[in-house]
Amino acid sequence: MRQVVERLRDAPVADAPSPLKVAVLLPCFNEEAAIAEVVRGFRAALPAADIYVYDNNSTDETVERAREAGAIVRTERRQGKGAVVRRMLADVEADVYLMADGDLTYDPLAAPLLIDRLVSRQLDMVVATREGDGMLARKGHAAGNRMFNRIIARLFGAGFTDILSGYRACSRRFAKSFPTASDGFEIETELSIHALDLRLAVDELPVRYGRRPDNSASKLSTVRDGLRILWTIAMMYRAVKPFRFFGAIGLGLAALSVALGAPVVVEFVETGLVPRLPTAVLAASVMQLAVLSVVCGVIVEAVAEARREAKRLRYLELRRA
Q1: Alpha helices in 27-162 (DSSP H)
Q2: Cα separations (Å) of 131 from 28, 35, 193, 218, 295?
Q3: 261 in the Ramachandran plot: left (φ > 0), alpha (ψ -120 to 50) or beta?
């Protein structure tokens, strides 16, 4: 026993776990009015983090202001926030990724809270739900956000109350296994649906959302980008829930076929004649399309399940921070 105790006493002490490498990712397009203050805010909140500003073809002095504030500045030529996020997640190596905007609307002081929630609970993503003057000042955006949240919850399941928030912390596993496809502001929708589809561990944290500086303009168009987000939701529903998507189309076509064909059938039963032959042919053709749609849904559902398994396996291959 004495020898065992002596061996344990003399054994080298295991190295303490190394601190997590945190990367703050700031996509920017013409944000010279705010970017320097944003970088300094995140530097004060996260002194050990690497702060990256990805410029997206700015025509002002965004790049110069970001460099002066001490950020690592890189460029993405393909226009659109989704394109920038895709490049950032591909290029930057870290254990934790904190995504925000360069317009001074998100509170940098909340960054440690988001990261602590992510790490302490071993989550894959923590979304900052926006509260405060910034949301009140943009009533159209707030109303659209509520509508999209309801649609997402209905189609993909509950999990988020602010899917369009651009302030979120992600694990390395999530960042490196996320198959980005969007090019614009619909990227946040894609991030949220991907997490819901794979049933990843996520959470939310209320964060103050402020107003932009007076000399800074929003790049988000309520109508244009709202329609793009709706289209993204529809296309992702087709990809993630194909049987329901094509099944709903099939049911609609079947109902149309019955509505067209019912009078023809009734008339045939009563008279033994089919005077409206074109209508009968149309009804039969529509019913064939309905059956075809359901069959397509069954086939594509199997493909979607295989893709989901592949994404899950890719996610599990990556080390947890």
Answers
A1: 35-45, 62-68, 81-91, 111-120, 133-137, 139-156
A2: 22, 21, 22, 18, 45
A3: alpha
Give the CA count within 13 Å in the CB-facing half-sphere of 64: 5
Closest by alpha carbon to 232, among 156, 308, 127, 146?
A: 156
- Quickly count: other Cβ atoms within 10 Å of residue 62's Cβ: 24
The conformation of residue 24, written as its DSSP 8-state character, comes to E
Could you read off the pLDDT tens digit of each residue along the chain, which spans 321 residues? 344 334 434 544 444 456 889 999 999 999 998 999 999 999 999 999 999 999 999 998 999 999 999 999 999 999 989 999 999 999 999 999 999 999 989 999 999 999 999 999 999 999 999 887 655 556 666 777 888 889 999 999 888 889 889 999 999 999 999 887 777 878 899 999 999 999 999 999 999 988 887 776 777 777 788 888 899 999 999 999 999 999 999 999 999 999 999 998 988 888 888 888 889 999 999 999 999 999 999 999 999 999 999 989 888 888 776
